[in-house]
Amino acid sequence: MFEIAPAFPAPVNEPILSYAPGTPERAALKDALAKLGGETPDIPHVIAGKELRDGSAFDVRAPHKKAKLLGRAHNGGEAMGRLAVDAALRAAADWAATPFEDRARIFLRMADLLAGPWRQTLNAATMLGQSKTAYQAEIDSACELIDFLRFNVHFASKLLEQPISPPGVRNVFELRPLEGFVLAVTPFNFTAIAANLPAAPALLGNVVVWKPSETQSLAAYHTMRLFQAAGLPDGVINVVYGEGAPVSDVALANPNLAGIHFTGSTRVFQQLWRTVGEKIASYKTFPRLVGETGGKDFVFAHPSANVDGLAAALVRGAFEYQGQKCSAASRAYVPVSIWPRVRERALALIETIRVGDVEDFRNFMGAVIDERAYNRLADRIDRAKHDPSCTVHGAKLSRDEGWFVGPTLVEVTDPNHGLMTDELFGPLLTVFVYPDARVDETLALCNATSPYALTGAIWSEDRKALAHAAKALHQAAGNLYFNDKPTGAVVGQQPFGGARGSGTNDKAGSAVNLLRWASPRTVKETFVPPTSIEYPFMQQQ
Ligand code: NAD
């Protein structure tokens, strides 16, 4: 009756393959790129295991080769959203009754399939559809996703720590899924996050409606195929493509909404939260709201910082995956004494960066995700070029073949300039140069300048200065790095998430996150129940 899972031992992180010339993984990836590049799937919603193609079709194109059609998906809208919610609710009882051990094995199998025969399919889909280089795809759609799947099983198996049972009593603590369904709404920029948001609640026995980002449809399609190949029962995860609002409208209007697992912009999460707030009396249970949202991630350099290390961290942290990581370095505070050397080194590194088609493995950067992102960045760069308080370096743009925005470094004299406060989500790093004597004032600025608090890095060779800055920036980042770039969190090593405008800080890929998808029940059994109601204190002397 009571399921107590045996613990699953801690896995090791999936090794990152190199894709160096001559390696088997490079050949396999090139084959997968050729195969997927030659297909144009008509991507179906998958609801109760059935493929449906309702709703107006939209093109899925390669951001770096916009003439290249990769497939078509459909705007599922309210109709598909409603079917998906119904299908999830129909699957709920069976899935909740499936022992944790059996659920876990499905996700472990998925991890092994991905580590083996599926690896290059998901990598190629992520490269083509989201314009990631081979390395950026490998650390996302292969390693991070494999780690999410394996580590979540390990963490979930340890959640069931049991309470004490004194003589005569047996106490059992069991984790039930939430009552209802979970809505997972996922971003374009990480295939691993897009898969983990529905997978983590499903591992805990929940049923899910998954709405991937329109611009991540190709990798989401292959991810859904992989869920099915691993043996996930029909109806446990139901995917609906297209615009978010019609699907979330239907989901949030349903009294069985039990939770939202969201990653994306702060604005959309606020909108979802607001709607849930307005409808709160209509739900059967208080929905769990978990959202990882925007960032304006900082690098704070102390005068003692290692110049070459700092410059490399700025360039990698700001420009890998075109700065489209929630954790990307986008504002830096550098003391005037070292800035000329840091700038020289950073600009020299930027000069070496090749931008272009990700199928050409010499390129360090691909294109930004779509025309909207390109226009937003082009506008901010253009305004900076005409702003006398800004000095712009780099900033080579091209929209002929694809949406290319080259690495851009802007020096500002106003620490509260919009480029220091707004999330721009592109390869744009803004630097404020501060007088060496003003470390404390600048730390206060860094703490207060942006509404976000996701990641940050402090650079110093002086341990006391590191500790001092970490204290001043205590609430400024959920993931803080010393002498490193602020990106590249690894599952099981740096649980990820931020607070303030950056989200609920429920640390994806950790026990903290998984607990949000469980509704614990405590069950007490008394072996020999008392047969009278009298207590000793009531007896006469
Ligand atoms: P986005 O907010 O535009 O879209 C995210 C998802 O929400 C998509 O599936 C989209 O279709 C859906 N959506 C959009 N409008 C909606 C609405 N009105 N109602 C319901 N759903 C709606 O974000 P994006 O551009 O895909 O991703 C970039 C953002 O994600 C950045 O802000 C980035 O910082 C953030 N992000 C955060 C983390 C983190 O861990 N904190 C990780 C990755 C990305």
Which features would summarize this protein structure in a list?
single chain, 541 residues, alpha/beta, Aldehyde Dehydrogenase, Chain A, domain 1, Aldehyde Dehydrogenase, Chain A, domain 2, seven-stranded mixed beta sheet, five-stranded parallel beta sheet, 16 helices, 21% strand, binds nicotinamide-adenine-dinucleotide
TL;DR of this structure?
By secondary structure, the chain is α/β, with parallel strands linked by helices. 38% of the residues lie in helices and 21% in strands.
Q: Can you tell me about this structure?
A:
Helices cover 38% and strands 21% of the residues. By secondary structure, the protein is of the alpha/beta class. The chain has two domains: 24-60 and 71-293 and 503-524, Aldehyde Dehydrogenase, Chain A, domain 1; 297-482, Aldehyde Dehydrogenase, Chain A, domain 2 (3-Layer(aba) Sandwich), CATH 3.40.309. It has a seven-stranded mixed sheet, sandwiched between helices. Strands 8-7-6-9-10 form a five-stranded parallel sheet, with helices on both faces. The protein has a two-stranded antiparallel sheet with strand order 1-2. β9, α9 (266-278) and β10 form a beta-alpha-beta unit. α4 crosses α5 and α10 crosses α11 (339-351). The radius of gyration is 25 Å and the shape is globular.
